[in-house]
Amino acid sequence: MKKTLRMLLLVLVLCLGLVMPAAACMADMAGVLNEREVTELETMIDEIRTRQKFDIAILTVSEEDIPSVQEYADDIYDGADMGYGETRDGVLLVVDLKSSECYMSTKGYGITVFTDAGIQYVGQQMRPELADGDFAGAFRTFATLCDDFITQARNGQPYDVDTLPKEPLSLIWIPVAIVIAFVIVGGMKKQLKTVRFQAKADDYVKAGSMNIVDNQEWFLYQNIVKTEKPKDNDKSSGGSSTHTSSSGSTHGGGGFKF
Question: What is the DSSP letter of 53?
Fold first, then answer.
């Protein structure tokens, strides 16, 4: 509890926006970002927060032993009174540098914006940069994805299991696809044989091989088999799971390692 209180005091000092109901806060990133990177990231996040009316915050922890990053993130979110509006809409990303673990705590509309599948997708996009120590790049990726996810949710279809963003095709595959296409088409061309157009079907029938004396069609019967289409009753494959924080608030969220 003392560790949580100390971190809470740090957040209160470093987050200038906490004097307002909705705030986007940035700590000093525990030394992982330089002053210029912090300023650029603060400007980027503040613009998204103001435009989207949605709180976004990032907090790194390097010296504390955190038994549960989830509980830690939830307590910081609630204790610092984060979130936009009456429902405290927002997301807090906590990065524990000691355990190489991240956790996204969501609240209010943030639970709708970031589904369980969506959070894992965000983690996948950030993981390479985090693993390489490029925290500035990882946090820019996080902010950009937050903007995209909020917009998608406001359009009525939050990113989820079947609607996650499509991965862009790498440019390296374009020349590869062209070469493969030439090889396939070339092979098919070699198999073609020269033919001439025939005006009558008689030219395709061997003389004397067909002699039709009578032609009739008889309808005998038909069988119709109806099978009910199975219903998709699996409701656990999408959406956002929730839990209750130590202060009694409802949070969504999820974590990932790097």
Answer: T
3-class secondary structure, 84: strand
Global pTM exceeds 0.90? no
CA dihedral 66, 67, 68, 74 (to 10 degrees): -60
- Distance between CA atoms of residues 121 and 150, nearest Å: 14
Tell me what percent of the residues of the chain surpass a pLDDT of 90.
Answer: 58
- H helix count then E strand count, the chain: 7, 5
The residue with tokens 């374009």 is 174
Q: What angle do CA 76, 80, 82 make, to 5 degrees?
A: 95
Provide the residue type at 43 as one letter. T
Residue 115 and residue 162 in contact, taking contact as beta carbons nearer than 8 Å? no
Strands (E), the chain: 55-61, 90-96, 101-107, 242-244, 250-257
| Both structure tokens of 106 | 């969501």
Q: What pLDDT does 62 receive?
A: 86
**Hey, what are 102's tokens?**
């991240």
